[in-house]
Fold these 3 entries.
Entry 1:
Amino acid sequence: MRISKNKNLLFIVILIAGISLYFFNQHAVLQEDDEELNLLLLKIEHSPTPILLDSLNLKVRAIWTQKCYSCHSSEKMKADLALDTYDGVLTGGKDGPVINVNKSGRSEMIRRLKLHRGNKDAMPPKGESLTPLEIKAIATWIDHGAVWAKGKVNVFNESPLALQKPKLSEPSEYDNPVDIWVDQYFRKNHITWSPIISDEKFIRKVYLDVIGLAPGIDELHEFINDKSPDKRIKLVDQLLDRNQDYATHWLSFWNDLLRNDYAGTGFITEGRKQISTWLYQSLLHDTAYTRMVRSLIHPYSESEGFINGIQWRGEVNASQRTEMQAAQNVSQSLLGINMKCASCHNSFVNNLSLEQSYGFASVFAKQPLEMHRCDIPTGKKIKPAFLYPSLGSITKDSLQDRLEELAQFMTSPDNGRLYRTLVNRMWHQLFGRGIISTLDNMDGKAWSQELLDALACDFRDHQTSIKTLLKLLLQSKTYQLPSVDYQSPEEMNRSSFIFNGPAYKKLHAEQVIDVIGQCIQPLYEGVSFDPSFHRLPSQWIWYHEISFDRTVLPKPGKVYFRKTFDLSSPDKIKSAKLIATAEHSHRTFLNGKEIASGNDYRYFEIKNIKEFLVTGRNMIAVEAINDAEQGDMANPAGFLFYLQIVKDNKDTSVIYSDETWLSSNTEEHNESWQKINFNDLSWKHAHRYYNFTNSPWGLLTRFGIDSIDNRFQIARAALVQADPLSLALGRPTRENVTTKRSEEPGLLQTIALTNNTLLHKRIREGATKLFESFKSDKTLCIEQLYLKLLCRYPSEKEIQILTSYFAASYQTEDIEDLIWSIIASPEFQYL
Amino acid sequence: MIEYPYTRREFLEMIKKASLASLSVGLTGSSFLTSCKPNNKLVPTADAVILLWMAGGMAHTETFDPKRYTPFVKGMDSKSVISTFESIPTKLDGIHFSKGLEEIADVMDLGTLIRSYRAADLGFILHTRHQYHWHTCYQPPQSFQPPHIGAWIAKELGGKNEVIPPFIDIGQRFTVGEGEELKAFHSAGFLGSEYAPFYIPDPQTGLDSISPPQGMDLARFEKRHKLYQDLLQSGPLHDRHPYQQDSYIKSMERSYALLKSPEAKAFDLNLEPKETYDKYNTGRFGLGCLMARRLVEHGARFISVTTEYEPFLGWDTHENGHERLVKMKELIDRPVSLLIKELKEKGLLDRTLIILASEFSRDMLMEGRPNQKVKDQVDVPDKVAELKNYGMHRHFTDGGSILLWGGGIKKGNVIGQTADERPFSTVKEPIVIDQLHQSVYHALGILPETNYVVEGRPFYTTPDGHGKKIQGIFENGM
């Protein structure tokens, strides 16, 4: 914007606002700081050692940083007073000295700090006043000689970097480190272990947590009837071994964390790259976390999307250049550090300086970056530097070498922060609240530092296997404690939080959608990312709709396609398999005979059409309809076709939908257009609206004529591009890193549950099937739904309600309403 | 067709109970945010806003700021092309519009015409990036998702009528090119999905979005809800739900109340007299204007109606500019003027602020702005060989028009000026987006320093809280 003086002012205004608000928010933290400061003052009263006085000075300067520097620093010098240097403090301002060493009672600063707001001399005139304790601290410091310490002023708490493996003072009755340290914690806080949850609750929870699906009825019965004492342990092992399901479920967590998605801003101008394949493979093989981190930081082409960031076409704010995005995202996602503030100016949420942020960003840059303060260039180039010099210094010149160095430092066993951050995130996923509640600020307070460090050490010392870590958590007794009714989000986020057991967790969009898909009817047919790499050359074609020389969306209405191909001798054909589908409907003819049709793109069958083939020229003719979805608006439409002809000598040829097909939108009134000799000179080439892998309906995982063993039976929500339903249910757009989804859904979410068109269409389809199967047995229908969706039998009271409900009417729509009522119940929506 | 079982009064009582309950829910849900609002109050001059969005870059010289008319002559020099339309007079002395906008010209005495909008210089043009900036006041990308202006308003003021969603977005589909970029700013960002836009891609079927599921009549909707309630009360946690579930249950109740609301009729265009419907019906945009009028009558807060952005369509003329603008003007002229006239007749114009704007302007030759010329995206031949080449095919950011009516906006007012010779840049009183946003907030009584703390950082309605409202834009001399 304009001149830098204004900028400084702005920075300071933001600083005041930010700090006061931050502290307003962090009231609980302040109280703890109070205790610490109180203690320090008491100790000094007792015996004022130089060490204590030094730390008092640092405290005093931290108070000034928060409440005085916005006006009285070397940058600002209001009333010629700067409190950020010793000289400045001793010299005072234009009204004279501010402190009288050893005489706080005769120090101007203390007088003014004590004045009431409204008095023209009162300080600070705006923003939050100093607390009596803070004033006392400054007075004590003056009375003890006003010494100036050499140390760094840390306004904010910083956790030690290294892990401290806790030691047990006495042997524990538990084996699992989770339970050992929780037990210690419980003893200290006089909490007794609650009885563990029922088998029904356990199985539902562990299925959803590990693979994001509900157990089938058989699996449920088998588990409940299993009498072995270690059945819960075994179940965890079995679920963790379901590699595909595990990887698919956890993909959503990692996509959120690493800001990876199948669509989003930036892709259009190639300013963004997916890391989906790399990520999926890493999860599938439980790649060591340190190796994952190395691949993210010193990437190869499949994992470079993370640090490459999102680049929009055109110029961007300096704090959003891709190197800074890399620094911010690596800090937030992997280290639990908020660098967003410090990428514009010195941070007011942690101790990071602008220069540190630029140093870190420079690691990801070809050349050292010029530091910008609030988007104004400072002329100062900042050398690459890691945030934690104690782990090593960046020394190499080339970008690649530097990234390799950084990857090494990041994954060093001494970088406790890396391990703690991940352990805390996993704990949050399973227990609904982190050991530290601020997942992205790992300097926050842990309710049990011993537990956190014990787990982080364990994780580090077990080849950083995420599955091993999860196993430890899932096989603990702690995991089996009942969910606790913590009173409010404030209580949950408080740093004085007391852990009594897991918090209630809202099912994520993907879990809701997948369980409905599994138990009622799949929501989607196609995926956006197919880990099995199923590909066909077929294209989604339609009549080429043009307006002012531009391709536009297909209009509603009927269109026609024609395609010819030659065959030498059909009698030597071993097989001819065809599969075809359309949005919204099609009828497909071969040489005048109807060979396939459909009015829902999700349903298609493999057809053997050998008998319809003729020697010489063959003619495929298709009529297809694009329905109006809303009003008479143009909307996506497509026809997809694949025909494989295998001869006895194994020669194979394929015919598939593409732009060589001819197309027309002129209504045909007789069947002559299906014939070879029809005059199609006025027809034009069909347009490829989408390719096989990338259409509004996704990549149809079951569309193919080969065996589908290795393909997905249902399109899992994690693999599907975000749609209005999943977004409403809380899936984030991945424009920024997301590390926590909301436990309290808003109105948009409940409205979607109540009237989303797709959801209700699928519930209706599912209810129709159920009605067919249980026409004569209402009770069994009720029972099946409860077992599938809630993993339990209906209670007597529920049976009573439903029996009388179904006594009035038992039709598809009644089943539909029951399905909906269960899905909408908090019991279904929460774990 | 839905029946409306309650009287309006009964219904409002009921919804009030439901929404009071969910108000507390909303607060807990967004407790990570802290609003910073000093106590001094502005006196609002408007309660509702309608944004008429001319998506794709509307050339000011071809619409509301015409220059010398240079008729089409085969083979003419491209650089000789100034305006491709004749000028027509407006209700304001000495102020002319481009031919085809006669009806809007007829209501210009009721509003303010800004002729000096200067879009941000974001380098190589990408429409959606400029639109993102226009709607959020922040340049993408950002480390937090900034809210759309409609979401800010929804957050600060809530629904005027508790039943009608506070932020309604009419006419934009996301299945078009740049759909992902469009989604990125049609968002409540960090304010949370509570304030996200309520979409109505097609006004003709707008009712569906605010009704029970398709194919479910009201009786069944009620029956279903009763079943859900009965089961809830007999469920394992019937007596006391943890707070997370409690908030969920309240939200479910509110959704139920909303979707069976008699106010839903605001979304039903079939209730309009056929004559009115036909007059507005120049296409989806025209019907969107009609729906906006109905929604304002029923207490909507912020409504956006767009001509719809789709790359190279609508106002995004990369060729055939002249011919296509004839169509675009037909699309907007009558419905926009009707909207203003009818709101006036109904006595609602005084409290409804209407804005007509576009992300930037266009020119025959200049891409970007003078001295900051950016990479060309359209080949413009030196000679205009055919009609196809006649029109404003490049993206111009240094001047543009914005029209405002109602909600305390000064009547018959003109602000700013552009040059009469190429480049048609702003030469007087340049206006930037921050000023426009602050003017809208000012009219609504939202303080300029409004901000929320996100991840420890204050995030203002306009960057750094710096925007100042446009001087002299309001009737009351403000």
Entry 2:
Amino acid sequence: MKARITVTLKSGILDPQGKAIEGALRSLGVSGVASVRQGKVFDIELEDVDRAKAETLLKQAADKLLANTVIENYRVDVLG
Amino acid sequence: MCWDDAGAVHAMKAAVLVFPGINRERDMARTLRLVSGTAPAMVWHAETELPAGTDLVVIPGGFSYGDYLRCGAIAARSPIMDAVRVHAAKGGLTLGVCNGFQILCEAGLLPGVLMRNAQLRFICHDVYLRVERSDTAFTRGYNAGQVIRVPVAHGEGNYIADGETIARLEGEGRVIFRYSSPDGMIDPNWNHNGAINAIAGILNERGNVLGMMPHPENHVEAAIGPTDGRGLFAGLAEVLERVA
């Protein structure tokens, strides 16, 4: 079973890296970009577990380590 | 130094934690030995207990686990940190410098988080800090309002926490060091990494855990420069020798 955890900065948290990328896109002439926020994606392969168990353990992984919930939100997707 | 009834010397018993990728542990150990007269124990991250009698835990600077995931995130979850939590919960003094501050935040021993510097640059030079309080175990070697000069070396030192936490830190007098001008003015031009309220160091609620971005351990010897960092370690040594 495969899963993906996406970690993003909470709104209102300053993201200097996203800002720098935004500036670089503009200087490359990529027009129409209003703003960029940088996040992280974790692709996770699971051992043989059922879907409910998978969701529980992925949430645990995000809460315990993958996201710092002071500044970040996360989303868990079980891809089947 | 003080002597107990049996005539034995009680000196500070410090433990310096060592994680893969940490690189300031020797500077820290040298300073602790220089100021207290006793070499600290060097404790590997995979240990589950601190040496018996440890009265000061120091988490030094560096790049634990190459700053993978988030600065300090992986080190904060290593086995030795459970022992540090027990030590801190019993009121044991704990100091985190630079990456050590990031690790203490990630471990939940201090609130907030250290973000990428607002200017996006790694900064490596001396800064001025205003010492906000002198009535803590960490700052009794200074006067409140005193300005000290110490180096910084970090890319992620931009302290932030939610508004409620900042209000609490300020209200409870737990902001211990602020980036300032040489004459102690708080000014955006002297706030090198963009930290909220120019915060350079904070204390936990109980007053026994301090995290700070600058490196006081690097300014302790007159032969190689300023000695403004010495007060922090001398103060700690005095407290610990007294309670021994």
Entry 3:
Amino acid sequence: MAGEDGKDKAAPAAAEGQRKLDRRDVLMGLSTVPALGLFGYAWRKQNQVKQAAAQAAVAPREAAAAGDVKEVNVALLGAGAQGQVLTEAMQRIPGLRFRAVCDIWTEYNQRRVVNTLKRYGHEVNGYVDYREMLDKEPAIEAVIIATPDFWHAEHAIACLKAGKHVYCEKEMSNTLEGARNMVLAARETGKLLQIGHQRRSNPRYIHCHDKLLREANLLGRIVTVNGQWNRAVAADLGAPERYAIPQATLTQFGFKDMHQFRNWRWYKGLGGGPIVDLGSHQLDIYSWFLGSNPTHVTASGGLLYHDPATHEWYDTVMVIFDYMTPAGPAKAYYQTQTTNGSQGYFETFMGDQGTLLISESELNNPGSIYRDPNAPAWDAWIQKGYISAPVVPEEKEEGASGAIADVRESAAPDRHKVPITLTDPYHQPHLQNFFDAVRGKATLNCPAEVGYESAVAVLKVNEAIEANARLAFRPEDFRVGGTA
Amino acid sequence: MMTETRASHWAMIGITLMRVLVGWHFMYEGLAKLTADSWSAAGFMKQSRGPFAGFFRWLASDPTMLAYSDTITMWGLTIVGACLILGLFTRLASLGGIGFLLLFYLCNPPFIGYFYTIPSEGSYLIVNKNLVELGALIVIFATGSGKFAGLDRIVHGLWVRKPRLAAA
């Protein structure tokens, strides 16, 4: 007891002539010091746990930060709204050299993207016809396709056959035949074909799939799934008259007029309607997370609101899919409607131990996981940083005043956040994954075969609405035979 | 001369334990605020109800005063906590702690008819845990628990001339 001895020596000098500190005083005096030591220990431990959790949450985002990257020559085919979104995301990816932009709307979309890229130091040429672009630009290694759905198959196959790697927006194709030919073309040419279901590369979705569902099995047995994409009424996109595309060009490229060119998503034979435009992304997640493709589909839909003169596709669709997952049967509901944006878009996976609520949006429902009160404790997963600590409800329900809860009512589950935030544009990780694969550093997160499975499930919904019947899938429907 | 009713030995041990627990709580409240990314008392004070609501809302709305309040709260709680655990300047620390708790209590008093949206883990009617902890600090202050078991005993032995303990 060194401290005690020191005090003993000091004491006589200070308390000279007075009562000096005895051994008992010193012992009692120091008796609570160990409590401070204990506090320090607990504090340190607590910080270590917090730090470990924070680090675990950050880890998945630092995957692709390689040093020197090989420059890839890129072309954009389709410079509309989606093409511009992809271009913006690509400008943040190092090592890309834009060479060409192809779009039939030369006066507007094409000029706009070409000018933007030139401003950022890319020497790009504009083209109207993709065949001319492929002929004149042999240096192109990868083509990003963001044309209307009915062009995807022809564009993707031509690019693959010209020896380019292809990133093609979803829906892979508006016909199964087109999608099948795309898969075959990718196999024949040995070139990469990534389909733009970008959630497949979103770090939050990957975290939920790999860690929360597959590794920790936090939801237990998933029995039901619910999801939606509700979007408010969209106006005619319109186009300035002086920039109109010549009718001959429109006809050549399959559009009746400028209105149809701008609003192609409303027309059968060009797009697939909201279930394809919106639902496709989320139904792809259903299959991914459930680990299987659906066995049956029941659907109801209609053109309930819009004018049939301008809208051919259903504005409202409600679907039920049956699954036979590795863990057992499951049912999944999905709705998309384009007349009211209430509660936006999300997917909810419900198991007997928990619920996962997730969406691509970083603002609305980015990711919450709810633990059923009867499920085993999740502290170990919180410490690993897989999920946040339970969130304290900010406000007690006002309406609780007079309500009498039935004893059979389930207790409210704890809510934890999924601690992964994507700070890049939503499409960037998926494009990054594509270019990593082009450089041989990664495998595609959504190769043609996966995109095809998704297309089979989604395109069948419109078929089920038309047939007004419950349609069955055969397992072989999801496979493309005839390997070249 | 005062007639001193000395608490029994076991009572003093109990009070010392209580002092360490209250100190622990203070210290962690302080350190947690100090190490949080951006803690501020603003939310707490803007919620204020009751007779002093105007004062607390003014504190929260004036950036200079708010900065003072935040710093004093974070460091004050930490220092009071450390002193209580160690039994160092126990009476001064108890007074400081009582001051803080009184402010917290008055800022958001659980009076009849007030509803708060700040998370609370219990149910309170007039008496809340701040008030209970304040009561504990009054006991600690009154008994000068640091002189029984704490650094005050050494400090007292070294610098205080009057041989009070010997006489008693």
